[in-house]
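Q: Hi! First time asking for a complex rather than a single chain. Here are the components, and I think there are two in total. Is that enough to go on?
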Amino acid sequence: MGRYLMIESRSLWEGNDVRNFIETAAALSDRGDRIDLFLIQNGVLNATSRSEQYVKTLLARNGFRIWADDFSLASRGVPAAELVAGVREAPIARLLELLMTEGCKPVWH
Amino acid sequence: MALIFVGVMGAPYESELCTTVLRFAQEAITRGDYLQVWTCGGATSLTVKALGDTKPRNPIEIVNGKDDARYPSTAALVRDLIGSAQGRLEWLVCRHCMEERGCTEQIDAVKVQPPFKFVQHMNRADRSLVLGMK
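A: Yes, that's all I need. Here is the structure of the assembled complex.
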């Protein structure tokens, strides 16, 4: 069982490759890998109520966690209360903690 | 305390990539890690001498009476970050990318490296991450 830190910096509305990246994370999760999807920059926009159903299908997977960078949220005037339930607001320190987790394979998009 | 290698690709101001890299670097230094930042492509322009210490003045702020407003350039930010890191931050600039873009006059605080060193540094690190592939 692998462990992946998938970092998404762009929103779903910027291009199909963003959905492809998140779907890759979902596929890895489906085969038993642990996934931390860290949303940063415009990526935090993927975790608001506009994408609620989609985000919930991701969170329903075992070992799939979603994080949203607090600075990116604040820069866009998105309060933590607007995040889909289950998405965790996180400082950049959390990104480094996840990166340094034993066996973690990081991927930036 | 770990050695982290971060590759950065992409020109400044196309996205918030520069901000993210600087935030990441500051946090890594605060944690006590060793960090190597390798700039490729347009990111090599972050640390050119011609940027000076401050960004161009914002005319709107002058009009609004904020004549004294000054904001650090990316070169100054990187230089100051290196200075505060007590030897735990290396900022590396890819020579090939730098030359291709005419960004050859780099600030003294950074180290210019031949392209093949990228893989060497990456392999030596405890963890590697490349930001901004597109």
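A: The mean pLDDT of chain A is 95. Let me know if you'd like any chain examined more closely.
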